[in-house]
Each structure stands twice: as structure tokens, then as C-alpha cells.
Amino acid sequence: MLSKFKKFKSIKHYAKLIAISPLFISSLYPNIQNSAKAGFEVQWYDNDNFKKLRWYQTDDRKSGRNKIFLFLTSSDRKTGLLKVNIKVPDRFISKIKEKKVSFCKVKVGGFYEKTKCLENIPVEIELDKKNKSLDIFPESPIPSDKNNYAIVLKVTNPNRGGLYQFHSFGQSSGNVPVSFYLGSWTLKMQSI
Could you tell me the fold of the domain covering 55-189? Predict the structure, then answer.
């Protein structure tokens, strides 16, 4: 009788151990999810004046080496562009160097294909460190055709994670060049 009781007690003990073991294992390996590099965005104060632009980045970790593609798709450009101005956020504390900025005709990647530059376009780049803005002057105006273009930044990510909003303005290539708002890119850097 006593041996049956010990056997029953040991089976009950193993059953409890099996039931509780997933909790212990999950605490050893926290649930680290792969966040999307570009995609879902939330705007708190959504208004008609704000226009979301597409982007892609290769690394979203703090202090990671990153290659950021800021896309100007065919639907973003209503006219040809003589100049593109990018306002860099004040909290984006990273060294942006003129030689690490390029402009290219791009193939926007997806699930099966990688985002890559097809053809580099010669540009003149002016970096205003005081106002944290970047002016890009292509040698010939960017046409309003079906091709997609990208401003490529090779930077080291800031030490502080969060959302960084880059605003872009363009100057039209007409008889009277007019500056206008192109849209904004909202980049996400991990804070972990």
C-alpha cells in the first residue's frame, strides 16, 4: 500500500513538473520578435497635410551600421525635381557625411527580391550641420516618370532608439521653380 502511494505521489510530482516546465523555459528565452524594417506606421495626429513616404533600412539596432533608402516613387513626384531638401530630425544624433550620401535609380524590393540601386545618379550634395538639413542637386532634373529613385544614407544609428521623422521638400523644374512639400519618412530605431 505504501509503495503504491509513493508511486502515485511520484507520478503526480512528474506531472506537475511537466506542466510547469514551459514557464521556466520561456523565462530563460525571452520572446524576441523580428520587427518589420519598414511598413506599418501609426500617426497620432493624422491630417491631410502629412504625406507618408516609403523607406527601407538594413539595420534598426542602436549604434548599428545602417544603410537607409529614402524612396521617391513615381506617385510621390508630380513634376520634375531640380532640388530635394531633407530636414534631419534634431534628436537624430549621428554623423552624416556628404561622401556617405548618394542618389540612385532604385528597384524597390519586397518579399522575394532585395532593394538595390540600379544606377547611381551624379549629384551635388550640401550638408548644413547647423540647421541639420541636406540639399541634393542632381546634374539633370529628376523626371516625373515611372522610375523610382532613392536617397541612400550610410550612417551609424543613434544611441537612442525611437521614431525619427525626416521631412522632404522639392523644387520643381518648370519655368518658375516652386518649392513644395514632398512628404515625410518616419524611421524606427530599436530602443532595446
Answer: Immunoglobulin-like (2.60.40)
Per-residue pLDDT of 17-56, as tens digits, reads: 677 766 666 666 555 554 445 455 555 556 667 788 888 8
pTM (two decimals): 0.71
- Burial of 189 from C-beta contacts in 10 A (0-12 / 13-18 / 19+): buried
Domain definitions of the chain by residue range = 1-30, 55-189
